[in-house]
Amino acid sequence: MASATSKEKPRILSGVQPTGRIHLGNYLGALSVWREQQDGYECLFCVVDLHALTIPEVVRPDELRRKTREVCALYLASGIDPERSTIFVQSEVHEHAELAWVLGCVTPLGWLHRMTQFKTKSDQRESVGTGLLTYPVLQAADIVLYQADQVPVGQDQKQHIELARDVAQRFNQLFGETLTVPDVMIREVGARVMGLDDPTAKMSKSVGEKVKGHAIGLLDSPKAIRKAFGRAVTDSGNVARFEDASPGVLNLLTIYRAITGKPREEIEATFDGQGYGHLKMAVADVVLAELEPLQQRWKEIMDDPTYLDGVLDRGAERAREIASKVLVDVKRAVGLGR
Ligand code: ATP
Ligand code: LTN
Predict the structure, then answer these.
(1) Whole-angstrom Cα distance, residue 44 to residue 46?
(2) What pairing do the DSSP bridges indicate for beta strands 150-152 and 42-47?
(3) Which single residue of 60, 100, 103, 166 has CA 20 to 30 Å from 291?
(4) Nearest ligand to the C-alpha atom of residue 121
């Protein structure tokens, strides 16, 4: 086995794109899960700014730079501890792009055309860049570059992690055992938070940018958060049981359960048969109790750029240490160089 694969603890890698308004779905599906894994794993969390280029018409350069910092600060404010985890910016570790090229050469085009996210995103536009299609290859590179064992993501990313597994396996078949085949880590409750305006579609950053009342932004004001929950789509009844609830009500119950960790029976006993107004305000209360300290920490971090830069400089250094070794193994395996 290669040197970079000798790990003290199993490894985790995950990332969020620095685009749009980071929302409650991102927090419950990803950030809060990451926070809980920091003792059991060696964790690496990156802000995937290269991925943010895949739809260039919606990201302006200045905005991308600003969002990159803001999302790093959100990682910290969510409880990702730089003493225990490596936090870094993807584009500052050039090995990601280099490995993506090699992996792209072993990834059949058909696998990429099957990705539902590509189908949805490309259907919405007249012309798309090649990067939107090869996006999951870069994501596979992000993961295998650190020999990650587990990848904690929301439900919507499951297909991409399965592709990363397939790519790693194919590489190993062609060139010998080099890459760790990762597993997806998905929480049981809260891995697919739905839009408050339309509980049949997942809460999404891009929709949240356009449609008011769709998403709860992590940095939204308490007033805006209460208003969005107050307007959340439910139904005309009063059933609040997980099994029988309509999609909107189930979404509210699920958010409440994911945040409080209370058992289903207790939640149902509190809300079933009551008007939904009560449920909506109770969900808003627990969300606000979770987000208010996070927002406070976020402001403090954003006011201290030297601290943030220090965390990211150290993070990039640690990431490069691992990534450069794995890339050497990959290059050797495929015969690149002299
Ligand atoms: P977009 O929908 O605009 O593509 P996004 O909201 O999916 O963006 P990403 O940066 O793609 O945001 O996702 C970051 C992380 O948050 C991923 O792990 C993803 O699975 C998770 N995630 C995204 N949306 C949700 C959601 N609605 N519920 C739970 N997890 C989610
Ligand atoms: N594609 C992911 C973001 C992402 C990612 C990763 C997640 C890029 N690289 C590596 C986990 C591991 C998304 O859109 N949420």
Answers:
(1) 7
(2) unpaired
(3) 60
(4) 1
Ligand 1 atom with the smallest distance to the CA of 202 is: 27
Residue pair 49/3 in contact (Cβ under 8 Å)? The answer is no
What is the phi/psi pair of residue 78, to 5°? Answer: -80, -5
With the most atoms of ligand 2 within 8 angstroms of its CB, the residue from 51, 163, 183 to mutate is 51
Place of tokens 């139904």: 235
Query: Would you identify the CATH topology of the domain 11-190+305-334?
Result: Rossmann fold (3.40.50)
pTM of the model: 0.96
Question: What pLDDT score does 1 carry?
Answer: 38
Q: CA–CA separation, 73 vs 330, rounded Å? A: 33
**Residue having the nearest C-alpha atom to atom 15 of ligand 2:** 16
Residue 14 in 3-state DSSP? strand
User: What's the pLDDT band for 8 if we cut at 50, 70, 90?
Assistant: confident
Question: pLDDT by residue (tens digit) across 232-265?
Answer: 999 999 999 999 999 999 999 999 999 999 999 9
Q: Which residues, in sequence order, are bridge partners of residue 45?
A: 14, 87
Provide the CATH number for the domain formed by 205-298 in this structure. Answer: 1.10.240.10
Is 170's pLDDT higher than 90? yes
Q: How many residues does the chain have?
A: 338
Q: Where are the chain's structural domains?
A: 11-190+305-334, 205-298
